[in-house]
Each structure stands twice: as structure tokens, then as C-alpha cells.
Amino acid sequence: MGNISLWVLFLVGTVSSTDYDSVDRLTNKMLEGYNNMVRGSNDISKRTIVAFTFQLVRIVEYDEVNGKLAVAGFFFMQWQDDRMTWDPNQYNGTTDILFEESEVWTPHIILSSAHSNFRKLGMDELPVRFDATGKSYWFPADVFSTSCSPDIYYYPYDTQNCILYFSFWGYGINEVGFYPVLDEVNRYVYADHGLWNLTDSSVTITENPEINFIAAVIQLTLVRMPNFYLINMVLPIVVTGMLNILVFLLPAESGERVGYSITVLLAIAVFQTIASEQLPPVSRPQISLLCIKLLVDLLLSVLVTTLTIVSLYFYDMPDSRKVPVCLRGMCNVILCRTCRSSRREKDNYDYVEETYEIYKIVDGQKVTSSISLSDQRSSDEKESKSKEITWEDVGRCCDIVFTVFSLLSFVASNAVFAVLVM
User: Fold this and answer.
1) What confidence tens digit (pLDDT) does each residue in 152-171 have?
2) Tens of pLDDT, residues 235-263
3) How many other C-beta atoms lie within 10 A of the C-beta of residue 129?
4) CA–CA distance, 214 with 411 (Å, rounded to integer)
5) Which DSSP letter does residue 206 get?
6) CB 300 within 8 A of CB 247
7) Three-class secondary structure of residue 91 per DSSP
């Protein structure tokens, strides 16, 4: 952090001198015979090491559809130029001077992971500061647009790892080198983004002697803040899917069941279209779980519409057609007709008590005694033990079964989605 503070001081400070003539004389002296295409090392066989840090200002945008990350930031760069040394006492105490970038040697660095246009780091109008010992201080700034392929599997709870490669252009690995002062991105003046949260960063160096390649690798880990998508997309999708459960609660005679189910089907199709417009049309590494969930909801809605038509078919079946035995048995179980019939049969039995007199002659006298006999008889033997199952009863049974199926499907699909993305 001490080095960074020193570099900021050089960035915002002024040339240290007591008069203009000394600075002008020193500037002309330094540029005499200066070749800005040659590195400033006295021993050209040695590498020129460029020390740097990267200051991230803000995330401009991340376009998942086009795979483009744009960030605003600037570098603090420092290297040694042995040609830019002088005795401050000979120039009235001048300790540092400024040159335009086009006048002196600067490392040719490009963003090799650029999304579209490749261009040199820096601008000709940018100043380069030198002190009396030959240390060079350069602060190139820009909006860097890098290619970053999105991984949308957990959308909108996804995490993106984007990498910016800054490499020397036209120099060999034995001529120049990078040295990161910090192993992470400096966020001293970073402004938070409204959608992406920068959770981690790293700065490393990669070298490949076989292809004579050296690059500074800046990796940014971005985590999407899902609140906006949760309120405006995920929750409406869940609520719309829940409407499929209610279709079988509508009275069959209302005639609105099929229209209701088709409306829900179209609403899910609209959400699927909206989601597909916001996501990149890629299949690698994986498609979004949200797209898979929308497809499952769409198929379930088609199935519910089909089941609605099947249920109405039973309601409109003519009474002259006999209900099959298998359907009667199923409806007796679902409607609990067997249980109610057993209780009704038990209640319909009455206990009938009859009294008989018996007498006999004992010692010439008549002795009378009575005896009571009870009998259990049905009070309504003509009534059938169980009510006959009609096609309307079959329709009600289907409504119960289909409602339970819709509820279980709704809970299962949303539970699996929540477990996978959380």
C-alpha cells in the first residue's frame, strides 16, 4: 500500500523545481538522442521488469448474451529507464519531470482477451513521469472490454469468472516481464454495481517460453444479485404454475375449465419467451436450470389441459352407458362410498321385541308367565346397500385424482429447482 500511495503522489503532484528554465533545459537534455523504440536498460540483454497494480473503478456492464464484460480501471506501472537519470543539483533541485507517452519508451501492452477491438494500452497524450534515478511512472486508464463466456446453469443465482489477459506485444519473454505489486485488484475507488457483486479477484503472471508469450492475468469473480429476477421472474413463474392446481376446482358446468387451463399454458409460454431473450443462446457448458424448469412447467400445463378435457368427457357421458366395474370400484374407494355404506347399513337395522305368554295348570290353578324375544330386522330392505355410481361420480373422482397429481407435480418441480440453484 505504501508503493500505491507513492504512485498516487506522483500522479497528482507537480514537477519539483524552482524555475521554468531548469525544467526546460532538463527536458531538452533528456530527449537528446533518445530513441523511444529502444528499451531504457543500459544492458539490453537484461529484462525490463514492469511492476504494476490494477485499480478497478467500476463494472460498466456484463452482457451475457454477447459474452462481453466491460470494466473501467487504470494501471499504476513503474519500470527503470537508465537514460532518464540526472543530478538534481545541476538543474536547480529538479527531482522529476513529465513527458508525453509518444516521446519516451513505454511497454507495448494490449488486452489480448479483448471482445472485439485490439488496441495498445494508453494514449499518446498521457504523461509519463520520471524521477532523477530513472524510475518511470505511467498511469494508463481505459474501459476494457474482454470476452467472458457466461455459465448460466444456475441463473439467476449464477457466478461468473471473467479473466483479462494483458500481454506484451512485439517483445520476447527474455526482453520484458511483469511484476504484480499486489496479488489482487485494488478497489480503493471501486463503485459497486447494481446487479453484480465483485466477491473476489486475483492478479497473476503466466509465461510460456515455447510460444514466447507472457501476460498479466486479472481474474474477477462476479456474483449476480438475484433479488430483481426473483421478484420479477421466478416468483411469477411459481405463482403461474400454481394456478394449474385450481382448474379442477371450477364447476364442470361453468364451461370455463378448458379456457382457464389454456390461459395458464399461454402465460407460461410467455415467461419462457422472456427468459430466452435475456439468456445467451448457448448450450455450453450447460443450459439454464430456469429454462429447464419452464419447459417442465409448460409440459405439465399441457398435461393438465389434457386431463381437464378427459374429466369433462366423463361428466358429459350419457347415463344410458353403464359404468365399468373397475371405475365403480375406484370411485367407491375415492369417494369413500364403501365406508359410508357400511355405516348406513348398520344404522338401518331396528331391534324388534315380541312378548309371548305361557301358562300351565298347577294344582288345579292356572299359572301364567311371559317371555320376551327380540329380533334384528332391516328397516329398509328395499333400499340398495350402496348408491349406484354414475358418470358424474366418475368425473368427480377424476377431479380429485388430477388435483392431487397437479399439486404433487407443482411441489416436486419447484423443490428440485430450489435445491439445485441454492
Assistant:
1) 888 888 999 999 999 998 88
2) 988 998 888 888 888 888 888 889 999 99
3) 20
4) 53
5) E
6) no
7) helix
